[in-house]
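Long-time lurker. I teach an intro course on protein structure, and each term I like to show students one example going from raw sequence to a predicted 3D structure in token notation. This year I'd like something fresh instead of my usual example. Would anyone be willing to generate the tokens for the chain below so I can use it in lecture? Attribution to the forum is fine with me.
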Amino acid sequence: MTRLVAALAALLLIALISPLGATPATAASFDCAKARTKVEKLICNDPRLSRQDEDLAKAYGEALKVWDGKIAAYVKMTQRGWVGSRALLPPDMGQGGILCTDDQTALACLRDIHADRIAVLRSPGFRLGGVYTRGQDFLRVKPTPTGLDLAYQLADANTSQGFTDDAHPVKVATGQEVMSFPLTGTGPDACRLDAAFTADQVVLTQKGPCGGAKLGGWWMRDQTRDPEAELF
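-- Reply from a regular --
Happy to contribute to a lecture. Here you go:
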């Protein structure tokens, strides 16, 4: 009993002399003892951001398994792109693809983008996202925390582009692989695309004139392209 009391007293003493708010070096998904960048140090020093980093690592691991791992190359590529955009940009520079600025808003911004990325990776639409090609034509299906955005760019300059309203992403239910994308436009530009997804392709059925574009048929997934980076 005396040894137990002594042990408890020692633990209490450690708790009392530990710095207030200190976080363990293993709190994040990486070794905080090796943290070098300001982003890594912010993650290690902020308990909330550190928990988000752990949750992000778990969500990423789950995403690697979707479609039985058949799109793991795509998942890894998009995650590398996102990590690259997580750096802090000097406040007097343009964004250039970086999501947060190195100023007083940095911590709040990092918390926000981590929350968004976790939501994207865990969203039902993530497994459908990507860039799909048909010859020289491109179809971008971009996952967001609340759904999917779609845009296309065709080699034919007369009917080159179309897109959904990015303010209203198309909702996706868990396990859903067939859905409709209403594109912006009315009259001769009206367009709806019914899409059926598999791991490596999407089959489109065109409804409406779509401004003269011919979009129906098979589009193949390109795992080397990131829908976040592709600008149409």
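Some talking points for your students: Helices lie at 2-17, 38-45, 47-63, 72-85, 106-122. The chain has five helices and ten strands.
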